[in-house]
Design goal:
heterodimer; A: mainly alpha; 2 domains; 8 helices; 0% strand; B: alpha+beta; TATA-Binding Protein; 7-stranded antiparallel beta sheet; 5-stranded antiparallel beta sheet; binds protoporphyrin IX containing FE; Cyt_c_biogenesis_CcsA/CcmC (chain A)
Chain lengths: 297, 489
C-alpha cells in the first residue's frame, strides 16, 4: 500500500513538472508576443490583448502544476505515514511547493504575472534536481525526527524559505531593470513590468512579512533541539547559518527602516541575506557535518 | 565634503560619557550584531572541539603548523573564544544602554498628548480641504475615538495620533533579546552537563564520579546535583529492514529519587527525556559492548566484562580497545565488532545490518607498553601500538576463544550500551520567554503604522495626515476619513 502511494506521488510530481513546463512556455510566449512596436505613449498601450489568452493559460497551468505538486507531496506523506519532510528530496519538493504557493498568493494581490516565467523555471529546476539527484525511496523517520516539532519547525522554515526566495527573485528583477533603466529606456517587453519603486516595496514587504515567521522557525528549532539533543543551542552548522540568515535579514530591515536604504543598496542586501539561506540549504545539508545532517541526505 | 570636524576637548569623564554614548547608539548595536553574524561563520566551516574533536585532531595531524596558528586564534573553539565573547558582551551592554533610556522616554511619550495641530496643513502629504457643513468636528472626534486614536482638541482643531505600539513592540523585542542573553549566561554560570556511558544492567548514581565527562558552570556547586539513581533495564532498537535506518529507540529504566530505595519504572526516548526537576536525562547514543574474558597463560582471569565500542557507520560496525594493564607484559587488543557479519572484498569484515544477527569480534592482540603511565590522556577506544608487538589476529564468534602465547581471550557475547546525557539548564525558561516576547514584539512593531491625522474646522474644513517612517496605507485611511466626514458613502 505504501508502495502504491509512493509511486502515485512520483507520477504526480512528474506530471506537475510537465505542466510547469507548459506554463513556462506559455509565459515565454506571453513575454515575447506582448512586445509590439506601439506609438510613443508608454505602458498602457502595450498590447495586452494579443497575449491575454496565453497569459491566462500560463497562470492556469501554474495553478494546475501547483495542485499536482500539492497532491504529490501529500501522497508522499501518506506513503511514509508522516509529514513528507524527512530527507532532502522531500524538503525540495515541499520547498518548491511553498515557493510556488507564495507566488500564487502574492499574485492575487499584486500584478505579478510577469514573474511567472522566473517562478516556473525555478520550480522546474528545483523539482528536476530533486527527482534526478536527491531521490530517495519513501521510508519512516529516524527517531530524532519523530516529533510534533518536525511539523511545526520545518513547515515554518519551508514557508519562510519560499517567501524569502520570492523576495530575492523580485530584488534580482529590480537590479536587472535598474541596470536597464540606467542605460536608457526599458526595452519593450520590460515596459509592462512594475516600476522600480513597486518592486522595491514589494520585496521589502515580503521580507517584513516572513521575518517573524523565520524567527519563530528558529525558536521552534531550539525548543525541539532541547528535547531531542539536550541543548537548545549548540552552534551546529545549520543553527549557525540560520542565525546568520536571521542577522542578515534583521540588518536588511534595520537598514530600510532606521537608515533609510532604498533601491539598489537594499536589493543587494536582500540578495545577500537570501543567499545565506540557500547556502544553509545546499552547503550545510550536502557537505556540512552536524546534527542536522541525517544519513543519506 | 571637506568639513573640518571639531573635536571637543574631553576630560576623562567627558571621554567616558562620549564612549558610552557611542557604544549605546543604535548604529553600534547593529554593527555588533552584524559582527556576531560574521564571527559565527568560521565556526561552521572549521571543525569545532565541542562538536567534532576527532576532526580537529585530524587537522592537527595533517597540518600541524597551520593548526597551531589557528588554535592561537581559538578557531577550533570559536563560540567559546575571547573575541566571540567580547562581541556578544559588548552587544549586550550596548543593547541595555540603548534600550533602557528609550523605554523610559517612550513610557513618558506614550502618556503625553499629541502635539497641537500645525499651522500649515496644506504642506502635508495627505491634505484635503472643502467647504464646511458644520458637524465635521463631532464626526471626526467620534471616528477618532472608535478607531482608538489619542486626541488633543484645541481652537477648533483636533490633532490625533495612533500607532504607539510600534515603538512599544520594538522595545519589547529588544528587551526580549536581553532576556535571551541573560538566560544563556545564567545557564552557563549555574548549569551543568555530563555524559555517562552505561551498559544494560548497570546502575548510575548521580554523583560527580559516576560521569564519563562532566562540565559545570563557575557558580555550580557539586552538591547541587540532584540525588537520583537510574538502573538501565532494557534497551530496544528497531530498525527498518529495507533501509537499515533506525526507527525507534526505547530505554526502560528503574528510577529512584531522594529516597534511593523507592523505585519507579520509567521510559526514556529520543524526543522525550526523563525530567527530574530542573534536570533532564536524555538518551543520546547507543552501541555494542562485547563481553570478553581475558586469561593469562596459567588460566587465571585477568579481566572480564563488557567493553563499550564506538559505532563507525549506520550498520554499527564498531571499534574499540581492550586494555589489560595489570598483565605482565601488558596486553591490549585492538578490536572491531560487527553486529551482522559479511565480508567485502575491499574492506574485509563489514556489518550489513545494525541489529546483532550474526555478531563477530575481530581482534588483534598486542603486547608491550600500553603507554597508560605516560601522562598523555588516551582514548579508551584506541591503543597506541607504537611501543607494542603484535602477537596474533583472530575473528571470533560468540563463545569462541582465541589462544595466543601469553594467554587467551574469550568472546562471551555482547551487551548494549547507552549514552545518557544529564543536563541542568536553569536559564532555559528565561531564554524561551525571551524568544516568545521577541516574536510578539516583532509582530507589533512590523505591522503597526504610526501616524498623525489633523482636522481644522473654520469656513472650510482642512484635513491632513502624516505617516512616520513613510509607512504605506495612510492614503487609504485618509480617503475613508474624508468620505466619512463628507457623509458620502
Ligand atoms: C536551535 C535549533 C535549530 C535551529 C536554529 C534550526 C534551524 C533550521 C533551519 C534554519 C532550517 C531550514 C533551512 C533549511 O532547510 O536549510 C532547519 C531545517 C530543519 N531542521 Fe532545524 N534547527 C534547529 C533545531 C532542529 C532540530 C532539533 C531538529 C530535529 C531533530 C531539526 C531538524 C530540521 C530538519 C529536519 C530541517 C529540514 C530541512 C533541512 O535539514 O535542510 N532542527 N532548521
Amino acid at each position: 500500500m505504501a508502495r502504491t502511494w509512493a509511486y502515485l506521488s512520483n507520477y504526480l510530481i512528474y506530471s506537475s513538472m510537465a505542466v510547469y513546463t507548459l506554463s513556462f512556455f506559455a509565459h515565454a510566449v506571453e513575454t515575447a508576443w506582448a512586445v509590439r512596436i506601439t506609438t510613443e505613449d508608454s505602458k498602457k498601450t502595450l498590447d495586452y490583448k494579443r497575449t491575454e489568452k496565453v497569459a491566462r493559460i500560463a497562470t492556469a497551468m501554474m495553478i494546475l502544476g501547483f495542485l499536482l505538486l500539492v497532491a504529490g507531496v501529500v501522497a508522499r506523506g501518506i506513503s511514509a505515514g508522516r509529514v513528507p519532510w524527512g530527507n532532502m528530496y522531500e524538503f525540495s519538493i515541499t520547498g518548491a511547493m511553498a515557493f510556488c504557493g507564495a507566488y500564487l498568493v502574492a499574485l492575487r494581490k499584486y500584478d505579478l504575472r510577469w514573474l511567472g516565467l522566473l517562478v516556473s523555471i525555478a520550480v522546474l529546476l528545483t523539482l528536476g534536481t530533486a527527482v534526478a539527484v536527491l531521490y530517495r525511496p519513501s521510508a519512516p523517520l529516524v527517531p530524532a525526527l519523530k516529533s510534533t516539532w518536525l511539523v511545526i519547525h520545518v513547515s515554518a522554515a519551508i514557508i519562510s524559505g519560499g517567501v524569502f526566495l520570492l523576495a530575492n527573485v523580485i530584488a534580482a528583477a529590480y537590479l536587472y531593470l535598474d541596470a536597464m533603466e540606467s542605460r536608457g529606456e526599458r526595452t519593450a517587453w520590460a515596459k509592462r513590468l512594475p516600476s522600480l519603486e513597486v518592486l522595491d516595496q514589494l520585496s521589502y514587504r515580503l521580507v517584513a512579512f516572513v521575518f517573524p515567521l523565520w524567527t519563530f522557525a528558529v525558536i521552534a528549532g531550539a525548543i525541539w533541539a532541547e528535547s531531542a539533543w539536550g541543548r537548545y543551542w549548540g552552534w551546529d552548522p545549520k543553527e549557525t547559518w540560520a542565525f546568520i540568515t536571521w542577522v542578515a535579514y534583521a540588518a536588511y530591515l534595520h537598514a530600510r527602516v532606521t537608515v533609510g536604504w532604498r533601491g539598489r543598496k537594499a536589493a543587494w542586501l536582500c540578495l545577500f541575506a537570501g543567499s545565506t539561506f540557500l547556502f544553509n540549504y545546499v552547503y550545510v545539508n550536502i557537505w556540512g557535518t552536524g546534527k542536522h545532517t541525517y544519513s543519506g541526505l | 565634503m571637506s568639513q573640518e570636524i571639531q573635536i571637543p576637548e574631553l576630560g576623562s569623564v567627558g571621554l567616558l560619557r562620549y564612549s558610552w554614548r557611542q557604544l549605546t547608539s543604535m548604529r553600534t548595536a547593529l554593527i555588533l550584531l552584524l559582527m556576531l553574524g560574521v564571527a559565527a561563520i568560521p565556526g561552521s566551516l572549521i571543525p569545532q572541539r565541542t562538536q567534532n574533536p576527532m576532526k580537529v585532531s585530524e587537522y592537527f595531524k595533517n597540518s600541524p603548523d597551520l593548526s597551531r596558528w589557528m588554535d592561537r586564534f581559538s578557531l577550533f573553539d570559536v563560540y567559546g573564544s575571547p573575541w566571540f565573547s567580547a562581541i556578544y558582551i559588548l552587544l549586550f551592554i550596548s543593547l541595555i544602554g540603548c534600550v533602557l533610556p528609550r523605554t523610559i522616554e517612550h513610557f513618558h511619550a506614550a502618556r503625553a498628548l499629541p502635539p497641537a495641530t500645525p499651522k500649515n496643513l496644506d504642506r502635508m502629504e495627505h491634505h484635503a480641504s472643502w467647504t464646511a457643513q458644520g458637524d465635521e468636528l463631532d464626526k471626526a472626534r467620534a471616528w477618532f475615538k472608535t478607531n482608538r486614536f489619542r486626541i488633543l482638541e484645541k481652537d477648533g482643531s483636533i490633532s490625533a495620533e495612533k500607532g504607539f505600539s510600534r515603538e512599544t513592540g520594538n522595545l519589547f523585542f529588544h528587551l526580549a533579546l536581553i532576556l535571551v542573553l541573560l538566560g544563556i549566561s545564567f545557564s552557563s554560570l549555574f548549569g551543568m552537563r555530563g555524559d555517562a556511558i552505561l551498559n544494560v544492567g548497570e546502575r548510575f548514581v548521580n554523583t560527580p564520579t559516576s560521569y564519563d565527562s562532566l562540565q559545570y558552570g563557575k557558580l555550580f556547586k557539586e552538591n547541587n546535583l540532584s540525588d537520583f539513581s537510574i538502573k538501565i533495564d532494557k534497551f530496544t532498537a528497531k530498525y527498518n529492514v529495507e533501509t537499515n535506518a533506525p526507527e525507534d529507540y526505547t530505554l526502560d529504566v528503574t528510577f529512584a529519587q531522594g529516597d534511593l530505595t523507592k523505585f519507579t519504572q520509567r521510559v526514556i526516548k529520543v524526543n522525550s527525556p526523563l525530567k527530574v526537576g530542573n534536570t533532564n536525562i536524555y538518551l543520546q547514543a547507543n552501541g555494542y559492548s562485547p563481553v570478553v574474558t581475558v586469561r593469562d597463560s596459567k588460566g587465571n582471569v585477568a579481566m572480564q566484562g563488557p567493553i563499550p565500542f564506538l559505532p563507525q557507520d549506520g550498520n554499527l560496525r564498531s571499534i574499540g580497545a581492550i586494555k589489560v594493564p595489570d598483565a605482565d607484559p601488558q596486553i591490549g587488543f585492538v578490536g572491531s565488532f560487527v553486529p551482522t557479519y559479511a565480508r567485502s572484498t575491499n574492506n574485509g569484515a563489514i556489518s550489513v545490518f545494525p541489529e546483532a544477527l550474526d555478531p563477530r569480534l575481530l581482534l588483534s592482540a598486542w603486547i608491550g607498553d600500553l603507554g597508560l603511565d605516560s601522562g598523555v590522556p588516551q582514548s579508551v577506544y584506541r591503543i597506541d601500538t607504537s611501543k607494542m608487538k603484535q602477537v596474533g589476529l583472530k575473528s571470533l564468534k560468540p563463545g569462541e576463544t582465541f589462544i595466543y602465547p601469553q594467554g587467551s581471550i574469550t568472546f562471551e557475547g555482547y551487551q548494549q550500551w547507552v549514552n545518557l546525557q544529564i543536563v541542568n539548564d536553569p536559564g532555559k525558561n528565561f531564554a524561551l520567554l525571551g524568544g516568545i516576547v521577541a516574536i510578539l514584539g516583532l509582530l507589533a512593531s512590523l505591522f503597526t503604522r504610526r501616524r498623525r491625522i489633523w482636522i481644522r474646522a473654520g469656513k472650510s474644513i482642512e484635513v491632513a495626515g502624516l505617516a512616520k517612517n513613510s509607512a504605506p496605507g495612510l492614503d487609504i485611511e485618509m480617503q475613508k476619513f474624508v468620505t466619512m466626514l463628507k457623509g458620502e458613502n
